[in-house]
């Protein structure tokens, strides 16, 4: 459930407006000139979004750090008063042991917020992350925002409850089911081949010599972490029959870090099971078994899979989704068996606590693949989205089969892209990659940079399985060396299409 109740937002707004002047009077650390110069009128959601849109159109990016105190405060108010504060010096995204300096910074921050808000720690502190250097706090006062932005030892301040896409006042941006589809489809007979013992190979695999690569590696012994909407409990081939046919000796584990509630205080974890369909398609692309059920097989059909239901859909526009993805990254980062993380979810610009989670997992040696972006009618001009835009991730996008590297109808590209995957028939975007469906016996098509990312994660599992002693850099370099443009990198398509057979030889 994505929408914050409008009544709650308005209640906070009234409280914030009534408290602002009082709090301005008590913050002695702030200069009178600065406080007087900061407009104290609460901006509407429409006004905030116009600021965001203008920056996106002008630079292709947006950061809350470039906005005024008024904009940041207004967004916080409209986002249920939730403010995420990343503390510490630049680059201190996480801690691996007790650090008295960081603890002192955090405790001082909390104390000053409590004083400014004239309330208690219990009412202010929403979450104190035990690993990442970030706290989520409840803030209603403009003066609190101004004071925090003048402090040292703060890496970012973001209104993590504010949604650019889904809110009552901006109905044209209602994308609460983006990327979701649980309906199976009838597959065109030209979009797959049947191989022993009775599995369907997607036509897209042939573009990358994936079947030929199986003579050398099938992903055995490698564990891939999937951060998405979970996998379907109605699909036994991603459950009790994960080991079936030529797929054996492996495991699938399912976890949930998403809280399905409009209220920030809820701890109602929604479980590990997919309710959207997107995560099921990604999990199937990576790891569905090779058997005699006449169903599409995954790229690395003997790898292990660890699935996290961390989000409701593919757009990280909800506080609980951002927190869910952040928590999933930390948990996967802590697992020594997980080598690869696949993320076909994202947002137009950076989210601080998710960025911290990516950095944490990266620093634990994970090879993180992220989708370059799949357009909606509202976002078709965006460049590569977050977190694919990060240096710590490997950005992937999709192209058609026309032979000219034409990007798919809904795919984003840009300088951050590392690899491309052919996943769409030219002039027929309904015929994309073929995958296992959400329900038992169903088949489906899935496209965009999402399936391109999951496909690449599967190819990486084949490589790492063939060379189990390698580290992340060696695997990534082999993928690059096995791509069409290597050693040259395209300005928008990276190293191009990967040859999976070459990568495992």
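^ structure tokens above, recovered residues below v
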């Amino acid at each position: 459930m994505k929408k914050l109740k409008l009544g709650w937002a308005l209640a906070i707004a009234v409280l914030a407006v009534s408290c602002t002047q009082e709090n301005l009077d008590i913050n002695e650390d702030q200069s009178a000139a600065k406080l007087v110069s900061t407009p104290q009128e609460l901006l509407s959601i429409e006004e905030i979004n116009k600021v965001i849109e203008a920056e996106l159109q002008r630079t292709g990016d947006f950061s809350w750090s470039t906005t005024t105190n008024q904009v940041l405060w207004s967004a916080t108010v409209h986002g249920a008063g939730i403010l995420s504060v990343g503390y510490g010096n630049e680059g201190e995204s996480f801690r691996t042991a007790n650090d008295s300096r960081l603890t002192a910074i955090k405790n001082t921050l909390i104390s000053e917020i409590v004083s400014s808000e004239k309330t208690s720690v219990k009412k202010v502190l929403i979450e104190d992350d035990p690993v990442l250097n970030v706290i989520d706090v409840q803030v209603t006062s403009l003066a609190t925002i101004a004071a925090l932005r003048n402090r040292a030892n703060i890496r970012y301040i973001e209104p993590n409850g504010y949604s650019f896409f889904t809110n009552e006042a901006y109905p044209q941006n209602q994308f609460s089911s983006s990327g979701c589809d649980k309906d199976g489809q009838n597959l065109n007979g030209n979009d797959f081949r049947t191989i022993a013992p009775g599995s369907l190979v997607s036509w897209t695999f042939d573009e990358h010599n994936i079947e030929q690569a199986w003579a050398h590696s099938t992903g055995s012994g490698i564990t891939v972490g999937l951060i998405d909407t979970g996998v379907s409990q109605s699909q036994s081939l991603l459950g009790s029959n994960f080991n079936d046919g030529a797929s054996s000796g492996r495991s699938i584990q399912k976890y949930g870090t998403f809280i399905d509630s409009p209220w920030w205080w809820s701890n109602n974890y929604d479980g590990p099971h997919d309710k959207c369909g997107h995560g099921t398609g990604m999990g199937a692309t990576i790891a569905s078994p090779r058997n005699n059920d006449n169903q599409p097989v995954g790229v690395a059909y003997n790898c292990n899979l660890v699935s996290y239901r961390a989000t409701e859909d593919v757009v990280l526009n909800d506080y609980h989704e951002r927190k869910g993805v952040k928590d999933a990254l930390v948990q996967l980062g802590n697992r020594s068996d997980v080598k690869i993380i696949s993320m076909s979810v994202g947002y137009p610009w950076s989210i601080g606590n998710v960025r911290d989670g990516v950095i944490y997992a990266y620093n634990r040696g994970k090879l993180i693949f992220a989708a370059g972006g799949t357009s909606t009618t509202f976002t078709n001009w965006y460049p590569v989205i977050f977190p694919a835009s990060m240096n710590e991730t490997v950005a992937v996008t999709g192209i058609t089969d026309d032979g000219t590297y034409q990007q798919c109808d809904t795919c984003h590209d840009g300088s951050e892209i590392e690899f491309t995957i052919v996943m769409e028939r030219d002039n027929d975007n309904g015929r994309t990659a073929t995958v296992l469906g959400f329900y038992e016996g169903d088949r489906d098509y899935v496209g965009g940079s999402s399936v391109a990312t999951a496909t690449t994660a599967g190819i990486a599992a084949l490589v790492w399985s063939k060379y189990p002693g390698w580290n992340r850099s060696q695997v990534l370099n082999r993928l690059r060396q096995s791509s069409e443009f290597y050693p040259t990198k395209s300005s928008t398509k990276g190293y191009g299409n990967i040859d999976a057979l070459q990568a495992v030889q």
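The CA atoms of residues 69 and 146 lie 6 Å apart.
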